[in-house]
Amino acid sequence: MIRFEQVTKRYPDGTTAVDDLSFEVAEGELVTLVGPSGCGKTTTMMMVNRLVEPTSGRVLVDGRDVAGVDPVALRRKIGYVIQQVGLFPHRTVLDNTATVPALLGWKKAAARARAAELLELVGLDPAVHGPRYPAQLSGGQRQRVGVARALAADPPVLLMDEPFGAVDPVVRERLQNEFLALQATVRKTVLLVTHDIEEAVRMGDRMAVYGEGRIEQFDTPATVLASPATPYVADFVGGDRALKRLAVTPVTAEDLDPLPDGAAPTGDPRSVPLGGSLKDALALLLQDDSGQLTVTGDDGRPLGTLTPAGVHRALRRSAA
Ligand SMILES: Nc1ncnc2c1ncn2[C@@H]1O[C@H](COP(=O)(O)OP(=O)(O)OP(=O)(O)O)[C@@H](O)[C@H]1O
Ligand SMILES: [Mg+2]
């Protein structure tokens, strides 16, 4: 859906922001771009909607080189959540959310109705928050408005530049979860920029780890954590990468020990579903001394038990 072909961007002052970049984002996929400040993430994103033009190489959206697409028409199909949210301070939250539909020439009532629907989708009450100005919202609420505004015209592609950057870790995790739940239904093709490795791992179907102007590794979070491609990536993902992997590794049937003889515990509060994360399982395991958990299937029936040795096996297997 989005394809970079050997893209280089040199700014007029000689700064090479992005150097020979090639990667592809599939339809409905969420790819995170992660790396330190100044490594070229925003520049990459802005070449998709032509806010920045490549010096060489091509960017294709839906099979078409964007260089040949009218920027206005292009941006109608691409929602954009900018770094620092960027709401208009003198417009109400409802009107901010209706910006793109209004630009597209929708009737005012239709644009506002759509905006109200979107505010609800991101967990804001249009009656309460809609008439307010951005300064009258919390940081997390403003970021939700940014996401609602980007989704308002129902674009197939979404660019999000540090969309949850300006809030504390607790609110950030809530916004991330809400967005993942939303994405599970709207299935946009998403590029999400962050400098936070935890966010990149948690949100990405795949992730691009940037060094200076280059992608050092492009793969699933589980693979990046298990097998960093370069010493730089290993350093960037952190010495605790094995722990981070717990969050992206599911409990599978192979990791289980048989159920104890005769025992068929149902409704056991100390149980996790097959396919749940090892992180959740380990957190439960550590809560008492029994050293085992029941793992249940889709129908809630117990399938087997998970022990610390099983957690270890699962991590080893997923690294292989
Ligand atoms: N208009 C410009 N003219 C010259 N250099 C620029 C321009 N915009 C960005 N740069 C430089 O290009 C490099 C990449 O910038 P970019 O904004 O893409 O980084 P980033 O990865 O988004 O960083 P951050 O995490 O701080 O937002 C930086 O060295 C930056 O100083
Ligand atoms: Mg940036």
TrEMBL record:
What PANTHER family does this protein map onto? OSMOPROTECTANT IMPORT ATP-BINDING PROTEIN OSMV
Start and end of every CBS domain?
A: 263-320
Question: What SMART domains does the entry give?
Answer: AAA
Name its species. Answer: Streptomyces hydrogenans
This protein is called what? Answer: ABC transporter ATP-binding protein
Q: In this record, what's one Pfam family?
A: ABC_tran
Return the annotated region ranges for Disordered: 254-273
Which keywords describe this protein according to UniProt?
A: ATP-binding, CBS domain, Nucleotide-binding, Transport
The record's listing under InterPro entries reads:
AAA+_ATPase (IPR003593), ABC_transporter-like_ATP-bd (IPR003439), ABC_transporter-like_CS (IPR017871), CBS_dom (IPR000644), CBS_dom_sf (IPR046342), P-loop_NTPase (IPR027417)
Q: Can you give the residue ranges of the ABC transporter domain?
A: 2-237
**Superkingdom of origin organism:** Bacteria
Question: Which family does the similarity line name?
Answer: Belongs to the ABC transporter superfamily.
